[in-house]
Task: structure prediction
Amino acid sequence: MATHHRTARTALAILLAAVPLTLATAGVGHAESSTVAVAAVGLDDAHKKDIAMQLVSSAENSSLDWKAQYKYIEDIGDGRGYTAGIIGFCSGTGDMLELVQHYTDLKPGNILAKYLPALKKVNGSESHSGLGSAFEKDWATAAKDTVFQKAQNDERDRVYFNPAVSQAKADGLRALGQFIYYDAIVMHGPGSDSDSFGGIRAAALKKAKSPAQGGDETTYLKAFLAARKVVMKKEEAHADTSRVDTEQTVFLNAKNFDLDPPLKWKVYGDSYSINS
Result:
C-alpha cells in the first residue's frame, strides 16, 4: 500500500454492535464508557464509511470525490511502482496483482487480464516492465467497468477496511478510532512488522491500554498516532504527517469519537470539509 490521498439503520447498528465482549474485557470501572464505545454507530455504517472514503481520498488524491479515483494511476516515486485506484493499490506491493486477479476471476478476459504475468514479475519492485503507457491507458478504460469498480471495492474491504474496523471494534474504539486504524492500514499495510499496521498498534499498546483493556480512548489513540508518526518519518514519501496532525488529531482533540459531521481538516496544506 502507498500514500498520497437513520433511524432504523442506527437502531439496527446499535443492536448489532452491543456485544458483551468489550464489557467482559474492560475493567468494571470502565464498563459505562466501553458500552458507549461499542454501541455507537461504527465506520461500517454506510454513511460513516463514505465519510472515511472521503477523508482518505483527501490525503491520497487531494479530492473528496473518491469514486472518481477508480481510474487514477501514476508512479509517485516512492519505490512501490504504480499507485492506482481508490486506495492506492501498488504494483510493487502485491495488492494491485491481487486486485487484477480478482477482477479476472469476476470477468475473465477483461482488458487488464493480459498484464497478470507482468504484474507477477514486477511484484516487490518499482519496475514498470511489461506495463508502461499501454497499461495506464487500459487501467483508465477498465475503470469505467462496474465490475472493475466492484473488484476495487471488494479488495479495499477485504484487505484494508474490514480488518481495520474489526480490530478497532475489538479494541473498544468508536468510529474515529476505527478510521484512524483504517487510514494507517491503507498507508502502511496490514503486516505485523514494526513499520506496518500491526507493528504500530503493538507499539501503541506498549504505551497505553486500549479501551477494551480498561484504558482511556483519547490516551490510547494519541499513543497510536504518535507511534504511527515515528514510522511515517522513516520514509520520505510519508514524512509529511499532516493527515495525522491537522486531520485525525483535530478530530481527536475535539473528542469527536463518533466522527460526526460537520468535519473540517487540512491535509498537505489544503483545507477540506464535510458538512453532513
About this structure: Strands lie at 73-75, 82-84, 89-90, 263-267, 270-274. Residues 149 and 155 are 10 Å apart (CA to CA). The two ends are 29 Å apart (CA to CA). Confidence is low (pLDDT under 50) at residues 2-38.
